[in-house]
Every structure is written in structure tokens, then in C-alpha cells.
Amino acid sequence: MKCSFFLFFLLFFGLQLQAQDPVETQIKSLMESTPVMGLSVAVVRDGDLIYEKAFGWKEEGKVTLSTSDIFRIASISKSFSATSVMQLIEEKELSLDDDVSDLIGYPVRNPKFPDTVITLRMLLSHTSSLNDSEGYFTLDAINPAQNPNWEKGYNDYAPGTGYQYCNLAYNMTGAIIEKYSGERFDQYVRGHILAPLGLYGGYNIDELDASSFALIYAYDSDSSKFTLSPAAYASRKEEIANYRFGYSTPIFSPTGGMKISAPDLARYMIMHMNYGKAGGERILKKSSAELMQTPLSAEENYGLALWKTDKLIAGHELVGHTGSAYGLYSAMFFDPKEKFGIVVISNGCDPTYEEGFNRVIRESVNILFEELIKP
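Structure for Serine hydrolase domain-containing protein, as requested:
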């Protein structure tokens, strides 16, 4: 009798262990050893979304995080802007070789190289010689008619010959999208990317369900405390009321202002993984999607808002982007050949970096790969 009970206990206990989610176990262990407010993840395998899970807090100590909660994803947003440009190029409204001066409506020339044209391709690939030293929340930053220090917004090398990551370049891109689509930037992205793919999100904070926002927290390593970052979801109603079409666009932050959930970001990622098509909808030609994934800067392996890296998962060259702002960290990376991809978003975690990636994001990506992709 005792033997039978003991065997039953072993069998029951073994089944319980087997039923445990190894991803959940490892990520919870990571969150116990490292400061993390919340973490939302999504995994794509063989081109399909196979796993989504949320861990930790949406609002510290009060509301737990859900997979349907949306985040301001920071610089992954740039790929939505570049995708919009490629759509307009397909419609012959724009060309990657267009002079940005003609597109934006004021001179965009590096004063040290005044005869070298700065092109739209250079803006999208961070090779324009522009920098963010004069700010990037307004297009006045390098407008000679508005900023007496506009010359400081350019580097010392010729356009097209060097690389420097530049947020201003993408806020300028958003204004160009407006002027040549005839639609306000946030409305263009919603109508031409999000809606066709069946995704919920957007750049306009005031048109989204505020109850779904995952609050963002910055972690201070010295005090070992999280601090709420309310600016991440600040209303733009006043600026919109006084909107200047083709110039006020940075209020939506084409460079970093997309708000979307991890699973929906993964569905968007599937579109890029499939070279422009997802859910039966093609929103980009294959050639356009391939061009976005083709590095234009050998130094950084950066294409058009997508870059290649072999430093995130050993033995795999992935395509994607990271983001960081206000304490949030995000990553969206995929392998277009093997048809897998991973999205990880934290609304606040230890800011430590390793090999160019936030450590918490990096470890989470590798846990998901080892448990759900590699087997």
C-alpha cells in the first residue's frame, strides 16, 4: 500500500514538474535576481505567433501586466516610419535619392560640405551627417531661419561617408511622409500599416485607450528604486490644436513614439520576416522589404530602420531593432530564413548593457530562443 502511494506521489509530482512552463520558470528567476518592473514577450516560430506571456507589474504594486497592454516601444518605431516611406516610394511619391532640402522645405546641407546633397536614403540609414546636438523634438533644430546654432547639428564628415544614429532624421522623415502622403503622420501609419495588419496601437496618445498603457519606470542603480516616467504618455491635444502640417510632426515622435503590445508588434514583425506580407495582407513589395533589411552602413550593418546583428543569439544573424526611452527597453529581432522571431519589452529594468544590448532583454531573448525555438 505504501509502495503504491509512493509511486502515485512520484507520478503526480513528475507530471506537475512536466506541466510547468520552463520559460516562465526561468524568466521569473531572472526577475527575482535582477530589478525588473514588468516584461511582455512574444515568440514567432515557422512564421506563426506561438507564445505570448506577461510578467510583473503594469502599475507598480497595484496592477499586474497583461499581454494586451501596450507600451511606447521607443526606437523600434523607426521601422514604421521607414515602412511608410517605402510605401510612398512604391506609389512614386518619393525616391530614396530625393534631396531632403526639397522634401522638407528648407535648406538641409552640411555647412562643411555645402555641395553634397543629403538624401532621403541617408536620413533613413543614419548616414546623413546630421546629429541630435540641437535637439530633435522640433524641426527648428537645423532650420537656418529658426535656429542661429543650426550648423552644430552637422558632423565633420561628408554626408554618406559616416554613420551616427540620429533621432532628428526620423522626425524629419515623419514630416516628409505627411507632405507627400497628404495625411497626418499618425493617421497615415494607422491607415496604411496598422489597420491592414489588424493591429491595435498608434502614435497619437489621445486616440488610444489609456487604461491599456503599461506605465514606464526608470530604475536608479544608486538608490535601487524605480521612478515613474509620466512623460512617456503625455497628451498632445494642445499641440494638435495648433498643428502645422508637415512641420509639427515631431510631437508624435516618428522616431520613437509608437504604442503597441508585444503580440501585435510580433505580428508586425511577421510582415517584415515575410518580406512585406502577413495575415494575407501585403503592405510592401518584396523588393522594398528586402531593401529595408540590406545594410547600407558596413560599419554598423544598418539598413533602413532595420539592422543585422550576430551578437544577440550565438550562431544566428538576426534582423531587427532595439529601443530605450524613459526607462523602457525593447527588442524586436527575427531570422527571415529560418522564420523565427522574438519580441521582448520591459516597462522598467536594470539599465546594464552587455555587448550592445540591455542585459535583461538579452537574457530574456536567449531564454525564449533556447526553450521555444532551438528544440
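The radius of gyration is 22 Å.
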